[in-house]
Amino acid sequence: MTALTLAKLAEIAGAQLHGDGSVMIHSVAPMDRAGNGEITFLSNVKYAKHLGECKASAVMVKASQLELCNTNVLVVDDPYVAYAKVAQALDTTPAPASDIASSAVIDSSATLAGSVSIGANAVIEADVELAEGVIIGAGCFIGKGTKIGANTKLWSNVSVYHDVRIGSDCLIQANAVIGSDGFGYANEKGEWVKIPQVGSVVIGNRVEIGSCTTIDRGALDNTIIEDNVILDNQLQVAHNVHIGYGTAIAGGTVVAGSTTIGKYCIIGGACVINGHIEITDGVTITGMGMVMRSITEKGMYSSGIPLQANKEWRKTATRVHRIDEMNKRLKAVEKQLEQNERV
C-alpha cells in the first residue's frame, strides 16, 4: 500500500494546505464512505451539505467550501483534476510486466533499452525498437519494424502490426489491435479484390487506447492519432483517419475511413461517423450521434433519439413514417392559401 503525507499530496495537487500536513493518506474514497487515512473531494456543489459529516482524513475543495469542512483540507482550483493527480500518486495498479520473461520470444535484431520489461509469451519480431521504460504485457505481439517510445505500457494480448509508430507515455489496454488492415476492396463483377494496406499507424505521445479498440493502418497514407488523445473501449478507427490533439472518444464509436477529427473534440458513446468528412476543432457530439456530413462550426451536436415508453415510441415511429405524406399535405394547404390571397 502506497501512503504519502498530506503535505506531499498538497504539493502534487498544487493545493493550499489547511490542517496537519503530517497526516498519512493511503487512498482516495467517496465522500460518504471515506474514513481514516483516506482523502476525498467535492466536485459537485449539490453534495456540499455533506462536507460537515465527512469522516475522511482530508478533503479537496474549492476555496468557497473551506468553511464547510471539519477536517484537514486541500484548497484547489479544480477538485476533480486534483483528485486525478492524487489518485495517480496513490495508485497501486501493478505493472503489466516486470523484467523479461523467459517464455518471451524476442528476435535477435530487436533493440531493447535496458529498462524494458516483457511479459510471458510475448512475441517481439525483427527490427522492433523499444525505448526506456517500455512495458509489454503477457501475450502481446509486436510486429516487424515497430517502434515504441519511452514509458509506454501495453497490457496483455495487445497486437501491434508491422511498422507502427507509438510515442512515449502511452497506455494501451488489453486486447487492443493497432495496425490491422483497413477495409479496402475493389469489386470486379461481384468478386472482392483485396487492396493491400501499405500505410501504417502513427500514434503520438500520452495517448490512451481502451480494451478491444481497433485502429486500422492506412491504405496509402498513415492513420494518425495525435498527442493527448484518449480513446475508450471497443472503438473502430478505420484507415487513414486523423484524430487531432486532445480529442476524447467514448466507447462503441465507429469512425469510417479518411475522416479528419479536429483538436479538443468530445465524442460520446456509440456514435457513427461517416467517412471522407471533416470535423472542426472543439466539436462535442452527444451519445449515439450519427454524423453524415462535415461539421465546420464549433459547438454541440446531437441526433440520437431519447428513450421513450414503448407505447409512446410506437406513436413516434408511426408519425416519422408519415412525414413525407404530411409534408405533401402541408404544401398543398400552403398553395391553396396563396391562391385564396390572390383572389
UniProtKB/TrEMBL annotation:
Catalytic activity: a UDP-3-O-[(3R)-3-hydroxyacyl]-alpha-D-glucosamine + a (3R)-hydroxyacyl-[ACP] = a UDP-2-N,3-O-bis[(3R)-3-hydroxyacyl]-alpha-D-glucosamine + holo-[ACP] + H(+)
One GO cellular component term noted in the UniProt record for this chain: membrane
Active site per the UniProt annotation: 239 (proton acceptor)
Membrane-traversing stretches: none
GO BP, sorted A to Z: lipid A biosynthetic process
Keywords: Acyltransferase, Lipid A biosynthesis, Lipid biosynthesis, Lipid metabolism, Repeat, Transferase
GO molecular function: N-acyltransferase activity; UDP-3-O-[(3R)-3-hydroxyacyl]-glucosamine N-acyltransferase activity
Source organism superkingdom: Bacteria
EC number of this enzyme: 2.3.1.191
Entry keyword annotation includes rRNA-binding: no
Entry keyword Lipid biosynthesis: yes
Every UDP-3-O-[3-hydroxymyristoyl] glucosamine N-acyltransferase non-repeat region domain range: 23-88
Pathway assignment: Bacterial outer membrane biogenesis; LPS lipid A biosynthesis
Broad EC category: transferase
Cited PANTHER family: UDP-3-O-ACYLGLUCOSAMINE N-ACYLTRANSFERASE, UDP-3-O-ACYLGLUCOSAMINE N-ACYLTRANSFERASE 1, MITOCHONDRIAL-RELATED
Functional summary from the UniProt entry: Catalyzes the N-acylation of UDP-3-O-acylglucosamine using 3-hydroxyacyl-ACP as the acyl donor. Is involved in the biosynthesis of lipid A, a phosphorylated glycolipid that anchors the lipopolysaccharide to the outer membrane of the cell.
Assembly: Homotrimer.
Family: Belongs to the transferase hexapeptide repeat family. LpxD subfamily.
Identification of the protein by name: UDP-3-O-acylglucosamine N-acyltransferase
Organism: Vibrio gelatinilyticus
Upper taxonomic lineage: Bacteria, Pseudomonadati, Pseudomonadota, Gammaproteobacteria, Vibrionales
